[in-house]
Amino acid sequence: MSMTKIAFAGALGCAVLAGSALAQQALPIPPLQHAVPSDGLNAAQMRGQDVFRTTCEHCHGPGRGMPGTSSLAVKYQDTAPAIPALIEERTDLTPELVEFFVRNGSGAMAPYRKTEVSDDQLADLAAYLSRPRP
Amino acid sequence: MAGAAATPPGVSEAVFADALNRFAGVVGAENVYSEEEDVALYRDAYSPLWDEREEKLASAAVAPASAEEVQAVARIANELRIPLYPVSTGRNLGYGGSAPVLSGSVVLDLKRMNRILDISERDATVLVEPGVSYFDLYRHIVDNGLKLWIDCPDPGWGSVIGNAMDRGGGVTTGAYRDHFGSHCGMEVVLADGDIIRTGMGAMPGANTWQQNRYGYGPWVDGIFSQSNYGIVTKMGFWLMPAPDAYLSGTIAAHRHQDVIPLIDVMNRLENIGAFTGYPQVGSPVLFQAGAGAAPEELEAQARASGQPVWTCRLQFYGGRKVNEAQWEYCQEQFAAAIPGATFQRGEEYDLPLTPEQAEALGTEKVSFGIPNLGRFSIGARSEFNDMPTSGHVWFSPILPRTGEGLLAAQKVLFEAAEQLKPYNLSVLPMPFANWQRTFIFLINFPIYRDKDANRQTREAFRKLVKICAENGLGEYRTAPAFMNDVGDTYSFNDHALRRFHERLKDAVDPNGILSAGRYGVWPRHLRT
Ligand SMILES: Cc1cc2nc3c(=O)[nH]c(=O)nc-3n(C[C@H](O)[C@H](O)[C@H](O)COP(=O)(O)OP(=O)(O)OC[C@H]3O[C@@H](n4cnc5c(N)ncnc54)[C@H](O)[C@@H]3O)c2cc1C
After folding, report:
1. β-pairing, B106-109 with B84-87?
2. Sheet of B397-400, strands arranged across
3. CB of B163 closer than 6 A to ligand 1?
4. Could A114 and B41 be called an inter-chain contact, meaning their C-beta atoms sit closer than 8 Å?
5. Is B97 helix (H, G, I), strand (E, B) or coil?
6. pLDDT band, very low/low/confident/very high, at A23 (cuts 50, 70, 90)
7. Quick one: pLDDT at residue A29?
8. CA torsion, points B364, B127, B193, B27, in degrees to nearest 10?
9. d(CA A53, CA B292)
10. What is the C-alpha separation between B156 and B137, in angstroms, rounded?
11. Is B231 in the pocket of ligand 1 (CB under 6 A)?
């Protein structure tokens, strides 16, 4: 097995496994790549990123078989200025907008109940997706 | 329209307020949801009744954290006659989401009960609580380096228990694809708050609860699936030991009539264990020629395009040499039964997959027991679809696993589509082999936030239920809007089975508080 490092979205945080640990692992962990690294995030944004990785990334991540990303690529294909298909890379999302979509859904995306994404988690998620960019 | 019902039917505001207070005493006020905006989150986002008077709405939701809390909630509900509707992860999209069947029910949301209580690599078993999703279980297995596979449905966010309770299916090996069939042992809270364990779980001190399904005496597990007789708080499952290698191969048959031996050989080979994965029967030309094309047309089209009329893709899990030998044997068997059959070797992997290999699989990850959500591309916005749906309802009839049965059932659906032309149904039914001895069709009816369109969809759906039943094709599962309709079609001896279900219901839940109406089984006070 190669020595490549793979990113690993844990329920409690994220870790990086090196080749030796990988060898013991029975099963792989897609997605291989997250769109946004954790560097420079504050605590709330970091928690929000964790929620994103466990809850949203299965549809809004990079890579194959991502209905959120592929739908939004089409929705915004002709927009100027360009809006990225990856919601983590967007700079136009406000906390209110994120909260609206998570509690109301959109098309194939069903809303999340509070037992799935609590109000506190949603505040973190909103902080992450609307974080100011340099 | 409001997204929540005010009170359960026949329950006064005062009694309801008392019930909610007492529920809060059990689970904590923060785990009782009665504000309209919170309760509205329990609406079925894919409801074919969205915003109509008949839409199935909860009146409140309660989220316990343990079996003891479930018992306490059931006792209160039973005393005050409050209808409860348990869900595990409540992601039953396409078959009802997290909404109750009876409007005004209080959803008992078990999502917070999310512990993996016991998992054994050696026995290849797991015991889980209802809130454990396929993602959670997969993650746990990976984090602990266990050499176990799960069998997941296309949507990875569902509950291992919830999916099994609705008798869902997956796509690995036969014994595991039937999710209810692969369970072993249950813990169930009854309507009066009593709690039972089934199989070996009934014997204190036995350590074989997840190994022997039956224990002693009448086996009752089945009556809790697709029903409303109890609230499952724990359930065991058999898991597949992680195989060392994977291989796939496709058989191509070039004459229309070949479908008969193709499926016969496929069945025999699966039932003797000569291939171990999920078999997929397809027809590339049927998709191009469209519904109802005659056999000669299909063959002509196949010749012109250089494609087969039928394909059958087999998958093998095991060791490299075993897979190789099995594929060789399967080819011999098909070649002997189908003149001119051709063979194409497919993907081949040493397992476990590398993350790169897994990533490249997209939605096919499920064939390797890796949960994902890729299938939600159905109806979503794309280059070809600028009108994304608000989900869909599945129409999923059971049909014989034979070539004749398949052709006959396809004919029924093609003719139904013709007869129901004003509804603009597009049916191109291909068979799915999730369950080992039958096929099912999976036809999705798109849902929009458009009452007229949804009304038409419901009409067409109901007509199709009838037409199919007249031809012996019955749904394996359905959304709450259609549960009575489908229930009506299982009518042998003047609905004797339903009458028996009702007798059971009256015996185990005399006040009729649990999941009233689920699968067409109503408590006495709500029967018409
Ligand atoms: C795009 C798409 C693809 C799909 N593909 C598949 C597929 O491949 N295979 C498949 O099986 N399904 C599939 N489905 C249907 C469905 O989404 C899944 O079956 C899903 O797992 C069900 O939701 P859940 O697991 O959250 O179950 P829940 O919603 O928690 O439970 C389903 C029902 O079972 C009963 N129930 C659940 N838990 C309990 C309990 N503890 N006690 C008593 N009763 C209980 C309740 O009546 C509940 O409404 C698909 C749906 C969509 C939209």
Report:
1. parallel
2. B431-432, B438-441, B397-400, B474-475
3. yes
4. yes
5. coil
6. very low
7. 65
8. -80
9. 45
10. 10
11. yes
- How far is residue B319 from each of residues B298, B323, B348, B351, B420, measured CA to CA in Å? 38, 6, 11, 9, 50
Mutate to test the pocket of ligand 1, among B89, B106, B154 (most ligand atoms within 8 A of CB): B154
DSSP of B229-293, one letter per residue? S-EEEEEEEE-EEPPSEEEEEEEEE-SGGGHHHHHHHHHHHHHTTS--S--EEE-HHHHHH-TT-
Would you state the pLDDT for residue A20? 33
Query: Kind and range of the H or E element at B76?
Result: helix B67-80
CA of B474 to the centre of ligand 1 (A): 19
Cα–Cα distance between B287 and B112 in angstroms, integer? Answer: 44
Question: How far is residue B299 from each of residues B255, B302, B304, B408, measured CA to CA in Å?
Answer: 6, 5, 9, 18
B379-401: average pLDDT = 93
Residues of chain A with C-beta less than 8 angstroms from the C-beta of B381: 71-72, 74-75, 107
Q: Which two tokens stand for residue B176?
A: 């595991």
Portion of chain A with pLDDT greater than 70, in percent: 77
- For B263-322, write each residue's pLDDT tens digit: 999 999 999 999 999 999 999 998 777 777 889 999 999 999 999 999 999 999 999 999
Give the CA angle between residues B50, B54, B56 to the nearest 5°.
70
**Computed over its alpha carbons, how large is the radius of gyration of chain B?**
24
Helix (H, G, I), strand (E, B) or coil at B452: helix
Which DSSP string corresponds to B222-244?
GGGTTSSS-EEEEEEEE-EEPPS
Q: Which residue has the tokens 């096929």?
A: B439
Strands (E), B384-496: 392-395, 397-400, 431-432, 438-441, 443-446, 474-475
Distance CA B374, CA B356 (A): 17
Size of interface A-B (CB pairs under 8 A): 140
Measured in Å, residue B299 CA sits from the centre of ligand 1 at: 39
- Cβ-count burial of B9 within 10 angstroms (0-12 exposed, 13-18 middle, 19+ buried)? middle
Q: Are strands B60-62 and B106-109 parallel, antiparallel or unpaired?
A: parallel
For residue A33, give both structure tokens.
């790549």
Cβ pair A117, B55 in contact under 8 A: no
At residue A25, the pLDDT reads 53
Q: CB of B326 within 8 A of CB of B291?
A: no
Both tokens of residue B298? 């299909």
